[in-house]
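INFO  loader      accepted 1 record
INFO  loader      residues=275
INFO  predictor   begin
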Amino acid sequence: MTVPHLTAAKLVAARQEGSLSRTLNDIFIMTRRNLLLDFRNPEVIVGATAFPVSLLLIFTASFAKVVMPNGNYADYAQFVVPLSIVQGLLFSTVTTGTALYNDLESGMDTRLRTLPISRLAILAGRILGSAGRLLAQVIIITFIGYLLGFRFHHGFLATLLFLFLPIVFALSFTWMAILSAVKARTAESVEVTMYPWLLPLTFLSIGYVPKAGFPEWLQGFVELNPISCVTQALRGLSATSQPIVEPAIKTLLWSLILTLLFSTLAIRAYQNRSH
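INFO  predictor   done
INFO  writer      dumping tokens
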């Protein structure tokens, strides 16, 4: 009875440390599994999108004439839609962290780790699976903005970059949510860990008001804030007379730094939890 047990264990270990092509195939399977879970529960996407859409409508109705006294509601929509997208995606990273925590606590993660699949595929599949939900959110929020007067003034390539750049940026924050989930003791701990970072970063950015609207001593932080960078990049990709290259490069650099930092910490914490 011992020989078959050892053989199975060796097979699982060998499969978990398999080749790159096998690992990529495992990541694809796990990504598909997480995408199906999201799209079979549309309330997850609707719930994650409703909050930024409601803020978009409220802020447009309340502050359009305050922030742009010489403009109209369409001008303010052109100004505020980029932040609404970024804000919605960042808040949605909490959902990804909570879903991973539920897998860890329900025993699903233990079952997956006993299967002959790459361990990297479990976390990478969760990250890539969330990208599909984020893309759906970007499209929905952009469509609502279009109804308010938001428009693209550049070509097809700029529109594609507008849709995908915030997803790349949000995925770097998803690693932060993954780290929180691995270390959390309750599902609520993921939210408690994430929101105190996300709320100040979104409101202390150029998203709702220009940099000049902040106190002078705070303007340095507002300019350095990564959410200001991605918001400015999206404005450049959608509107004329706005810089594109510099804020886009800053956004990618922030995404790379955050991904390297939090993916390393999250993978290490996940490995320690597995032992």
